Amino acid sequence: MCGTLDYLPPEMIEQRTYSEMVDLWCLGVLCYELLVGNPPFESSSYHETYKRILKVDLKFPPAIPLGAQDLISKLLRYQPSERLPLAQVLQHPWVQAHSRRLGPPPSPSAP
């Protein structure tokens, strides 16, 4: 196994068959880490980190907005089939409220 331990989803730790749904798990870990400053399941040992991932032992600091907590909680699900699909991530109210769609630059006006 290679990669960053903190991003491993339960199905990889348990050596089950996995699919692209692992990317949704990683997106949840990344969102948490960007907002909090450290991974959601970080522990003092590999063994404890594995246990926290398998239990989806997720705790949010009080400063994390409820909308972000909702999004991350919907991505960090033990069952891959229960993870929020990417199209729905883009439509999530917290993402919508904090996104700006940037279009192509305006064309120069003709002389």
TrEMBL record:
GO molecular function: ATP binding; protein serine/threonine kinase activity
Source species of the chain: Cnephaeus nilssonii (Northern bat)
E.C. designation(s): 2.7.11.1
PANTHER family referenced in this protein's UniProt entry, alphabetically: SERINE/THREONINE-PROTEIN KINASE IAL-RELATED (PTHR24350)
GO cellular component: spindle
SUPFAM superfamilies: Protein kinase-like (PK-like)
Gene3D superfamilies for the chain: Transferase(Phosphotransferase) domain 1 (1.10.510.10)
Subcellular location: Cytoplasm, Cytoskeleton, Spindle
Keywords associated with the record: ATP-binding, Cell cycle, Cell division, Kinase, Mitosis, Nucleotide-binding, Serine/threonine-protein kinase, Transferase
SMART domains: S_TKc
Known catalytic reactions: L-threonyl-[protein] + ATP = O-phospho-L-threonyl-[protein] + ADP + H(+); L-seryl-[protein] + ATP = O-phospho-L-seryl-[protein] + ADP + H(+)
GO biological process: cell division
Protein kinase domain location: 1-95
Annotated signal peptide: none
Entries under PROSITE patterns matching the protein: PROTEIN_KINASE_DOM
Entry protein name: non-specific serine/threonine protein kinase
